[in-house]
Amino acid sequence: MNSSTIKPEELQALLDKQEDIVILDVRRRQDYEADPCVIPGSEWHDPEDFDDWCETVVPAGKKTVVYCLKGGALSTMVTDFLRKRHVETCYLEGGITAWKKDILGQETDISSTCAACRITK
Prior knowledge:
The structure is a single chain. This protein has one domain: Oxidized Rhodanese, domain 1 (3-Layer(aba) Sandwich). The protein is 32% helix and 19% strand. It is built from 5 helices and 7 strands. The protein has a 5-stranded parallel sheet. It has a two-stranded antiparallel ribbon with strand order 6-7. A hairpin with an 8-residue loop joins strand 6 (108-109) and strand 7 (118-119).
């Protein structure tokens, strides 16, 4: 995990090998509540409360993977913040949307607002 991103298939391989990693779900509350599907072993943390949890949630020396809805601004922000604190961190390319498509075989309609995402397949 030296890159700033990881593909869904690469994350699945780490999970299959039972790698000791921290997986942070940082989707906005309305997106998480609209679709509480999570990656196995992940913990959801409200990005609105980032300052309250960011310093304490990642144990020192743990590899960390961050994901949001589409692998955009939220994931990048959290990843950058943790990397500045010397935490080996990357974010999931395409977020939970890519995970559901590539790993679970589900298509997600994100053409409307993110909080209104729905399974189409």
